[in-house]
Design a protein that fits this description.
Largest sheet: 5 strands, parallel
Structural class: alpha/beta
Strand order of the largest sheet: 3-2-1-4-5
Helix content: 25-40%
Number of strands: 14
Shape: elongated
CATH architecture of the largest domain: 3-Layer(aba) Sandwich
Radius of gyration: 25 Å
CATH superfamily of the largest domain: HUPs
Distance between the termini: 75 Å
């Protein structure tokens, strides 16, 4: 412990990280630098400054990272159509490499020799934070209090807070039974009744979306303009990546879009049940695939689909900064050169329906695809030889077997 002179703490201002802040000061006797990130969680981050100052912190970083998060992390992931285990849109996973990067940057700026986080020893986030940190600064020391202290229950944490005069704010909405994590891409819910996979999530748990039953009876049409695989405008209005996501979250949530209830396999080995609201991500993924369907070569699209589960697993498990993810990202980005155009979507009671797509880079040839006379653009007689050649090995095998 005497080796640690200064540590950068990922600090939310909540109970757990406030206790960690005091614990670091007490147990390690070191200077603590706090870092609070605004990545679109929808809550004020500035109050964390006063809380840190009250606990004697001199160096306080509060950064607005919304645009960087959307532009450099979410958008690249969307180009890959990444989904983990067929359902999870990686909302928490994709935020961790950015936080790890900023922790290391601040450690370098302030001369800190360690970083600290509030992730527990049972979850994925400890892996994501630390793999990212080690990839960016191999000699960094990492302090994970949940793996060291004996404050392993809510009662012990509350007692520690009372002993050290750490203020505990009551949540006004009465939803404190859930552990929540929010950013521009999603909000997640774990704990409470959700620890029983049979229990249905309570309606008043959801914060960003109405239920499909309560969604408007009239559908809403939206046009999304793509440039090289990224949404750059909505209904003709140019928008930044973060603005696109904020807009789609609001409109999608109003139509009951983006709710998921998932049991997933954590990297550390256990199964975990969580609920997620991802309105923007649900819409973006659906629209992006529609744009690719018109503009990507068949084999390029199929290769992307084959590689996507591995890409998604890299992000889920914390390997954003790995050479294999960066290599795959270059290939994915190269595939998006012609993914340009406009997708028209219909939002209605929890559903995202594709209502149209158009592109100057389209590979769709109406002359060939038509059921009407194609004026010689496609010779249907050619199909006979194509089929026979592809059936050759099947016919040989059938003769042997019969």
């Amino acid at each position: 412990m005497s080796d640690i002179k200064k540590v950068v703490l990922a600090y939310s201002g909540g109970l757990d990280t406030s206790i960690i802040l005091k614990w670091l000061q007490e147990e390690y006797g070191c200077e603590v630098v706090t870092f609070t990130a605004d990545i679109g969680q929808g809550e004020e981050v500035e109050p964390a400054r006063a809380k840190a100052e009250a606990m004697g912190v001199k160096s306080i970083y509060i950064d607005d990272l919304r645009e960087e998060f959307a532009r450099d992390y979410v958008y690249p992931m969307m180009r890959a159509n990444a989904i983990y285990e067929g359902e999870y849109r990686l909302g928490t996973s994709i935020a961790r490499p950015l936080i790890a990067k900023r922790l290391i940057e601040i450690a370098n700026e302030t001369g800190a020799d360690a970083i600290s986080h509030g992730a527990t020893g049972k979850g994925n986030d400890q892996v994501r934070f630390e793999l990212g940190a080690y990839a960016l600064r191999p000699d960094i020391k990492i302090i994970a209090p949940w793996r060291e202290w004996d404050l392993n229950s809510r009662e012990k944490l509350m007692a520690y807070a009372a002993e050290h005069n750490i203020s505990v704010e009551k949540k006004k909405d009465g939803k404190s039974q859930y552990s929540m994590d929010a950013n521009l891409l999603h909000i997640s819910y774990e704990g409470g009744i959700l620890e029983d996979p049979w229990a249905e999530a309570e309606e008043d748990m959801w914060r960003w979306s109405v239920s499909p039953e309560q969604a408007p009876d009239a559908a809403q049409y939206v046009e999304l303009e793509f440039k090289q695989g990224d949404i750059v405008a909505i209904d003709g209005e140019a928008m930044t990546p973060a603005t696109v996501m904020a807009w789609l979250n609001k409109v999608g949530g109003a139509h009951g879009i983006g709710r998921d209830d998932i049991v997933e396999n954590r990297y550390v080995g256990m199964k975990s049940r969580g609920c997620y609201e991802t309105p923007a991500g649900t819409i973006m993924l659906r629209a992006h695939r529609a744009m690719e369907s018109l503009t990507l070569d068949r084999e390029v699209a199929h290769l992307k689909d084959e590689l996507m589960p591995r890409y998604a697993k890299m992000i889920y498990n914390g390997y954003w900064w790995s050479p294999e993810r960066e290599m795959m990202q270059r290939m994915i980005d190269e595939s998006q050169a012609h993914v340009n155009g406009t997708v028209r979507i219909k939002l209605y009671k929890g559903n995202v329906t594709i209502a149209g797509r158009q592109s100057s880079d389209s590979l769709f040839d109406e002359r060939i695809a038509t059921f009407e006379d194609d004026e010689g653009a496609y010779n249907q007689a050619d199909a006979e030889g194509f089929i026979k050649l592809n059936a050759l090995r099947l016919r040989i095998g059938a003769k042997r077997n019969h």
